[in-house]
Amino acid sequence: MSGHTGQRSAAESGDSAPADPPPPGAVTPAPSVPAPRPSGTVIAERYQLLAQVGSDDSVNAAFWRARDTILARDVALTLLQATGDDGEAERAAEMITKALRWGKFEHPGCARLLDVMPGGHHGLPEDVLGLAVTEWVPGRSLAETVRAWPLRTATLLGMLDPLAKGAEAAHRQGLVLGCAHPQRIRITPDGSARLAFALPHPDATPADDVRGLGAVLYTLLTGHWPLSNSEAELAGLPPAPRDVQGVVVPPGLVRPGVSVEVSALALGALGAGASHGRVHTAAGVHKVVAELMDSEQEVALLPPPDDGTPAAADEVWKTSTMPPTVDPERRRKLSLALGGLGVLLLGVLGYLGVQVGSLLGVTPPSAPRIIVAGPQAPAPAAETPPAPGAPAAPPPAPALPPDPGREAVVHPASVRVFDPTGDPDNSGRISRLVDDDPRSSWSTYIYKRPFPALKPGVGVMVSFASPVQLSRLTIASPSTGSRIEIRSAPAPDATFAQTIQIGETTVNSGTADVPLTGSQPVQNVLVWITKLGGGGDQNVTEIGDLRFERVTG
User: Fold this and answer.
1) pLDDT of 332-370, one tens digit each?
2) 8 Å CB contact between 212 and 179
């Protein structure tokens, strides 16, 4: 049953002549917007409005905390309000029909549906096209929750888990939550995200719920809402920052310290950026959340990562936040004085040792002489064998073969880590790749799951001072089994989709040669790792050196 039962207007009944056109220069009135409903109003002779806590302009819905005067309990009301838009009555009727299917669905991640009323129901005002009643979710709104930001990543994953489970259960029954709106979500006192208000948009799909889960996680991580800017404004949340292409900036760039796995989950659920790594179902979100929570439990006895979160009062691991008691200049002078005193003390002790030795008739052994013939370098000192039971040191990165044509080598002007997820692996060590010293190396993070489980790959963007015709790239790497693509890029900050593959290789014997003679002159080259070395839960690729050679002659 839907529609209005009240008297139609004169214009609707056709009893009045058409209105005169507005005079020149007159302003056409904007579509009617529902006036704020006063608190204390009783709806359907049962529900007393207490406070409006949100709205969804896409369906002209108002969210209210209300009091059920019959059962003496607080409830949540979703009121579909009439604004005079074409088709809004049909849309409201469709939303009410879908809501009736929620009668038997109950889940801890969703507020339980208690009542549904179509437009024209006894006691509903004429400007209310439908109503849904759910149990009231105590706690805080999403915006109120992030005002206490930042919170530990493990805590945020625990918040999202019930909502992800609820979306998964709803989708299995052919239902849609409508969680892609910030004011439909509330956080309970025990720290669980729950869907608090019913009646989502009739065109909402399970894919929208997945995007909503990603948006909730992104907001909990960064304090910014990554979907509609107008919804963010209504909820009192700042919109998420975006890059020059309009893509949402990864959480790790907004809040340094967010792990690559959590950042990849948020972006994958949102579908931001490239299609690779996208999470398509609520079941997928729930599975990854559960795995990440298990990982957090495994490292619970270790100090938590520095993600910008202040330590809680009852937290075991804390970092000192006491201000320095000595100013930096005084600290520098004190360090120099202590260093000089230490050198002087060592000199005095050495002198006393020599004098005591002389008195006792002990002559110190002379240092062995090292004779260097020609250009030969001094022989290295013998290595001390490891203590019994000590772990063996990892083998050093293999050295590149001798370079007979040194003039063919071209040196990069710059190098940086390329990571579409926004969490570059060990970026502070990337310069070691082009220092002509294979003993100093760069490596990816150690991943518990191989690519592309949480990210499609990791790359190194190498740029030259000017375009160059390359003939070969030699990669020194001890990580056997690593699969690497060589791709040309139009600019150092190009996206992965803008790159073109010009070669590939798999590291097998410590070094890998990639012929590039057939490629066009390039100025930017992406060395893209698609498969890591190692295995099990120790997936990592280490590279000791990259040597580019150009075509000569």
Assistant:
1) 555 566 666 665 666 656 665 555 455 444 444 433 333
2) yes
Bridge partners of 75, per DSSP, are 66, 135
Task: Please give the Cα distance from 225 to 434 (Å, whole number).
Answer: 40
78 pLDDT more than 90: yes
Residue 70: φ, ψ to 5°: -85, -50
* Angstrom distance (rounded) from CA 333 to CA 15: 95
* Average pLDDT over every residue of 112-141: 93
What type of residue sits at position 154? A
- Strand segments, DSSP code E, in 469-544 are 470-476, 483-489, 500-506, 511-515, 522-531, 533-535, 538-540, 542-543
Measured between its terminal Cα atoms, the distance across the chain in Å is 86
Best-predicted range by mean pLDDT (3-12, 174-183, 247-256, 292-301): 174-183
* All domains of the chain in start order, with CATH: 34-135 (3.30.200.20), 140-298 (1.10.510.10), 406-550 (2.60.120.260)
What's the CA gap between 270 and 266, in Å, rounded? 6
pLDDT at 398: 54
The answer to whether 527 touches 459, Cβ cutoff 8 Å, is yes
For residues 459 and 530, what is the distance between their CA atoms, to the nearest angstrom?
Answer: 9
Q: Which of 69-83, 190-204, 447-461 has the lowest mean pLDDT?
A: 447-461
For residue 341, what pLDDT is reported?
62
Q: Which two structure tokens, joined as six digits, stand for 96?
A: 């009410």
Indicate the pLDDT class of residue 300, thresholds 50, 70 and 90: very low
The per-residue pLDDT for 543 is: 92
Centroid of chain to Cα 387: 43
CB atoms within 10 A of CB 271: 17
Q: How confident is the model at residue 282, as a pLDDT? A: 94
Side chain identity at 248, as an amino acid letter? V
> How many C-beta atoms lie closer than 10 Å to residue 90's C-beta?
13
HEC string for 388-446? CCCCCCCCCCCCCCCCCCHHHEECCCEEEEECCCCCCCCHHHHHHHHCCCCCCCEECCC
User: Could you tell me which of 2, 192, 173 has the C-alpha nearest to residue 93?
Assistant: 2
Task: For residue 498, give both structure tokens.
Answer: 């803008």
Extract the tokens encoding 431: 């310069």
- 434-456 core/surface letters (b: 16 or more CB in 10 A; e: else): beeebeebbbbbebeeebeebbb
Give the per-residue pLDDT at 354: 53
488-515 average pLDDT score: 90
Contacts 24+ apart (CB under 8 A), 328-337: none
Predicted model pTM: 0.55
Q: Is the peptide bond before 150 cis (omega within 30 degrees of 0)?
A: yes
Of 541, 518, 423, 414, the closest CA to residue 472 belongs to 518
> Model confidence over 248-280: pLDDT tens digits?
999 888 888 788 889 889 999 998 755 456 889
